[in-house]
Known about the structure:
This protein is mostly helical. 74% of the residues lie in helices and 4% in strands.
Amino acid sequence: MSPEELLSVDVEKLWELQAVLSQLADRERAMSVKPEAFAEVDREFQSVNDEMVRLNQSLETLGKEHRRVEGELTDSQELLKKYQGTLMQVKNQQQYAAAWKEIDAARKHVKELEESALKTMSEIEGIQKQLDERKSSYDDLKARHDEAHAAWQASLGDLRSEAQALRKKADELEAALPAEERREFQRTFKQRGGIAVTRVINESCTSCRTRIRPALAQRLRRGEMVICEGCHRILYLEKTPV
Ligand SMILES: [Zn+2]
């Protein structure tokens, strides 16, 4: 069905709902703005948190690498022992030379792995040190952060109760609307930047300046729901005082 076919509705109620929703949006916007006193400590806190997450991740990666190297080192040491054992059982010069070659290679490998294990260990210690340094100031920073956050939230008391009351009012108004009108309102409200209902002044839409054709103006005066032909918003004709 085309919007023009919508049933007559109390546009006054839609106008009121829109005003309430707009006031609610104002409060929500105001509540979402961090005051500088909190924003500053919050930035610092987030940055320290991010840094600690990053350091912990490095620590985990290095820990895994270290365990892998240690495991490989144990295997290589056992292999080396095995080769050293075979050295006792060689029967000729040729076998002796071959055994030594294996031992030599195994020793080299063990040495490489030992160096690698030392390197990851010292990297782990370095990162652990950085973490410990941050941890020592973390508690103090967190306390300052939480305090500033609580102060900000406390300062929102009035705004919050106003927003709650407006939300309740908007819900009541919406619930009282016929389903079709509610959908039309909500759809237009969302699509048209929070202005679903627009005033008519001097037979023109105040949102898009489109002139209201006489036939539509007549229906509007009868109290029917009329949609602007220019911007598709619901037209609202204020009752002129008699
Ligand atoms: Zn319009």
